[in-house]
Structure formats: structure tokens, C-alpha cells
Amino acid sequence: MNNSIQSYKASVLEQRSINNKNLQSWLLSAPSLFWLTLFFSIPYFIVVIYSLLVPGIYEVKFQFSLQAFREVLSGVYFKPFFLSFRLALFTTVICILLGYPVAYLIARSSEKWKNFLLVLIIIPFWTNFIIRIFSWRIFLSSGGVLNDVLLKLGLINSPLEIIRTDLAVIIVMVYVYLPYMILPLYSVIEKIDFTLLDAAMDLGANERKAFFKVTLPLTSEGLFAGSILVFIPALGAYIIPQLMGNQNSLYIGQVITYKIKNIPRNWPMASALSIVMLILIAAILLTAYSLYIRKVSRKRYEIRQNI
After folding, report:
1. Nearest to 69 by CA among 52, 81, 85
2. Reduced to 3 states, what is the DSSP secondary structure of residue 53?
């Protein structure tokens, strides 16, 4: 009887301690949450209001209308949405294929080389974003470094037309967003107990099987985080497609910008396109997160069953 009372008191005290910690966490994060909620919700609220108005020459007419959403949902803008999703998907997949080996190499390196390699990954952030894009324009242009080297080596007879193509857009997108894939993967791979790989090989698994059965599942969190950090900004990219692409392949970020820049300025259409893009991104995130949570729960259930 005394043991049950003591265990009950201990559980109550433990629960109080947890509640106090949760309260402290909420109090500490309240200012930042208020700031983010206020200054994220107000712009979106304005966008929603603008999407329900009538366009004027420069501004909007305060008359309720659903014409912008009717036009968006009619399929007129299907191609820009498709091109943007394709670009974001290609960029994410290529970043995974290139970033995973790099992150693995950095995580398995010695402390001396690890810090040096991390600095190399972070160095591009020290240079202005626009300057880096223009550097790629110079490098990939007809008279640029790449074509000069290939011509001197005799690998090509005439300069390659890479600039102003979808290939140029993908190359620069991967270059810009690759660190956002490497860093989350590195932070997860570094925490792996690599003796598990030795144990898997002792049990008969080869290197390939050990990677897919041990390493890859343990790094799924990093893959998920890196994919989100790459896919979402790549989906709404404007500057890179504008400077590296062509007018035959307009992405949704460019279409939204043109609706605002061109005269007459169609603010409702730009707002409606932004809202539809936001809804699609939210749907993708919720679907991916639910699938990820379901997979994690299934793995934990299998582990408990094996125990």
C-alpha cells in the first residue's frame, strides 16, 4: 500500500515537473511566436484580400470578385505550375544524390578535415546571391570559361549554348541549394553509431545491404529536412530562372512577378496564384509529414514486437 502511494506521489511530481518545463518553454518562446504569427499572418491576410478584388491599372478596385481564382483554376496557368514542380523535384533529387555522399564523407572525416570541409560548404553564403548567379552566367556563356576549356581541349567544335536553357537553371539551382541538403544530412549522419554497420556486416550483410538497411533508415530525418529546405524555395524561385532561363519556360515565380510588374498591374491574379501555390505546398508538406510519421511509427512498432 505504501509503495503504491509513493509511486503515485512520484508520478504526480514528475507530471508537475513536466508541466512546469512546458510552461517555461511556452513563456520563453511566446515573444518570437507572437512576432512570427503577427508578421506572417498580416501579409497573407492582405494577399487573401487582394485576391478577391478587381484589378485596376496600377492598384486594385475594392469590388468583390472571384475572377482571379476562376482563371487560375481554368488551367491557363497549368504549364508554369508544372514547370515549377518539375524544377523543384529535379533540384531536390539531384541535391540528394550529390549531397548525401558529401555529407557522409564530412561526417566520417577526422575533426581537422571535418571543420575544413564544413567551411568550404558554408563559404558560398559569404558572397552575395546575385553575384554568384552572374558568375555562373559568365562561366556558362558562349565565350565563358567552360566553352573556352572545352574548345581548347578539342572536345567540342563550337560553343555550347547552355545559358538561357532549362539545363542552366537546374545547374545553378543545385549549386545554390546543395548546402541546404548537405548540412541537415551531416548533422544526422554524424550522430550515427557506425559500429552498427560493423555488426550488420558481421551478421552477413554486404556494404550495399548494410547501407540500405542501417545507414539510410537512420538518416531519414536528415533526408526529410533537407528535401523540405530545398524543395519549397526551389518551387517558388524567381531570380535564378529569370537570369538563367528563357521566356519559353516561365516558372510560377516569374508569372507572379510579371503580373505585378507589367501595366496594367494585376494584383488579384498574382495574389490568387500565390494562394494556390501556398495551398499546394501545405498539402505536399502535410502529406509528406503524415507518411513520414506513419513510417516511423511502423518501425517503432516492429522494434517493440521484436523485443
Report:
1. 52
2. coil
How far is Cα 191 from Cα 222, in angstroms, rounded to an integer?
11
**For residue 26, which amino acid is it?**
W
CA distance linking residue 239 with residue 254, whole number of Å = 8
> Which helix (DSSP H) or strand (DSSP E) does residue 128 occupy?
none
Total-model pTM: 0.82
* Cell numbers standing for residue 249: 519556360
Residue 303 pLDDT class (50, 70, 90 cuts): very low
> For residue 93, what pLDDT is reported?
96
- CA-nearest of 281, 51, 250, 77 to 169 is 250
Cα torsion for 47, 50, 52, 56, to the nearest 10°? -150
- How far CA 118 is from CA of 106, 124, 217, 251, 270, in Å, comes to 7, 11, 24, 32, 39
- Which three cell numbers, joined as nine digits, stand for 153? 581541349
HSE, side-chain direction, 13 A CA sphere, residue 90? 16
Instruction: Classify domain 77-306 at the CATH topology level.
Output: MetI-like fold (1.10.3720)
* Interval 45-98: pLDDT, tens: 889 999 998 888 878 888 888 888 999 888 888 999 999 999 999 999 999 999
Q: How far apart are CA 265 and CA 269, in angstroms?
A: 9
Domain positions in the chain are 77-306
Q: What is the DSSP-derived secondary structure letter of residue 211?
A: I
- Strand ranges (DSSP E) for the chain? 54-55, 60-61
| 54 phi and psi angles, rounded to 5 deg | -105, 135
Calpha distance 49→62 (Å, rounded): 9
